[in-house]
Amino acid sequence: MTVPRCLTIAGSDSGGGAGIQADLKAFAAAGCFGTSAIVALTAQNTLGVTAVQELPTGFVDAQLDAVFSDIGVDSAKTGMLFSREVIETAAAFLASHPVPLVVDPVMVASSGAKLLQDDAVDALVGRLFPLATVVTPNLIEAEALVGSGARREVAERIHGLGAPAVVVTGGHGDQPIDHFFDGREHVEIEVARYDVRATHGAGCTHSATLAALLARGESLLNAARGAAHAASRAVKNGLVEVGAGEGPVNVLA
């Protein structure tokens, strides 16, 4: 197979800015063929999320089986998983079909809508983190998981929860830096920050690009650097004219 194959396990964004829609665009921009297993549907636009409809876990499992059994998967990422039941379904399948895995612990939308149920956090940490190649929280998600602190400290705490490697992304906080920690090495990856009112989907774009670069054979650190660059560039070229709220990033520019 000459074209790397990437799978996103996440929710659908009807507004097209985040979720599987953002992931598939990022896969394509990185030269990969993208597939998806949709776990939830959202009624969403640039102003926010108005409804979430979870899909049956049996159907999630069927999507995973359909993709793995025919197309194959060189790397995967998870995004919005919403519930404990979905997380346990995805984790059980991935445990028996191991591939390089990026876990983006999506907890809250940029609009503030809750995208992960309270009782699902333990399952996310206990079931998915140990299967991950890398976990990619933004600073808000990282602090929700392990409390506040400098990115270095937060990354170490998340690693202590069972994540083999961590990238605390730099879109939030005072310093535009992605902090990488793999249990041995701390690396600060500088990120260009742009004052553009179009950041919707930046986190999805980052984690999807990281997964795509792993599928292409890049080292984890080089993939993290490439993902930081791609997400920053996507914000720089964001589509501020789309919608009345926070516009979507543009990874295809």
Write a short abstract of this structure.
This protein is an alpha/beta fold. It is built from eight helices and nine strands.
Descriptive report:
- With 253 residues, the chain is of the alpha/beta class.
- It has a single domain, classed as UDP-N-acetylmuramoyl-L-alanine:D-glutamate ligase.
- The protein is 38% helix and 20% strand.
- The chain contains 8 helices and 9 strands.
- The strands form 2 sheets. The chain has a 6-stranded mixed sheet with strand order 3-2-1-4-5-6. The chain has a 3-stranded antiparallel sheet with strand order 7-8-9, with helices on both faces.
- A hairpin with a 4-residue loop joins β8 and β9 (186-190).
- The protein starts with a strand and ends in a 17-residue tail after the last helix.
CATH superfamily: Ribokinase
User: What would CATH call the architecture?
Assistant: 3-Layer(aba) Sandwich
Number of separate domains: 1
Shape: globular
Q: Classify the fold: give the CATH topology.
A: UDP-N-acetylmuramoyl-L-alanine:D-glutamate ligase
Q: In the CATH hierarchy, what is the class? A: Alpha Beta
Q: Which terms would index this structure?
A:
alpha/beta; 6-stranded mixed sheet; globular; 3-stranded antiparallel sheet; 253 residues; UDP-N-acetylmuramoyl-L-alanine:D-glutamate ligase
